[in-house]
Specification:
Blueprint (H helix, E strand, L loop, with lengths): L14 E3 L4 H24 L4 H17 L9 H20 L9 H12 L1 H19 L5 H20 L8 H28 L5 H44 L5 E3 L2
Antiparallel strand pairs: 1-2
Amino acid sequence: MSEKSVVITSKSENLILDKITWRHVMATLMMLIGCFVVLLLYNKIGNGRHYIASGIEIAISIAGYLLLFRGRKPYAREIATIGVLVFIGVIGRAIFAMIPHFKPMCGLIMIGAMALGGPGGFMVGTLTAFCSNILFGQGQWTPWQMFAYGVGGLLIGWFYRLRIVGKKRLIPTAIICGFVVVAVVGPLLDVSTVFSADMGFQPEIFAMYFKSGLPVNIIHAACTVLTVLVMTRPMLNRLDRMKVKFGMFGSYRKQQ
């Protein structure tokens, strides 16, 4: 039986890429280092130039992701799938906007990252953060939000590839996703507040913001855990079927 005739169910093994190549490592480093340098420069010469910084981050994310396609152009169905994942994340944030700090957007980004891998998760994170702020307001916080959600997607995408998380281990996966929010995404968002307030690099200032932001990050993490528990299998099953049927996002095989 060929790979294209594999039936994907909630009990199926994860689909993973055949191997990690230098392109995946280079794309990851390009996104992390490139976008972090943009944030450092933005902190020095920001003054309302958040659209420029956001645009550069988006360009770096897309360029890094295109590096994975090994000389071919992405299929239209692949671009459409990425657009749908971003749209779902934006809608997830909009629906729960009336509940303070309860945002399923990060969980949806992480699910998309499981399907697309680390670099793809970074790109989905940056695009989702930028597009959602079209509804909720752009500002000097936008580039930092894009980087924070991008890093969250990047980590979960790599965890999925390394089989640390997966839809067969749903509860541990959800807990790890929640931990990433508390330990990485939330603190990065808190750091953006420090830089926005222009308070310098004093350790006590960072500690104060991290402490005050912890309750918010815990609520955000709880929402992420619930989102991953409820949405991972339905979304990944459909995305896995598409990847197998249409040969999307590279060559996939069943996890042993």
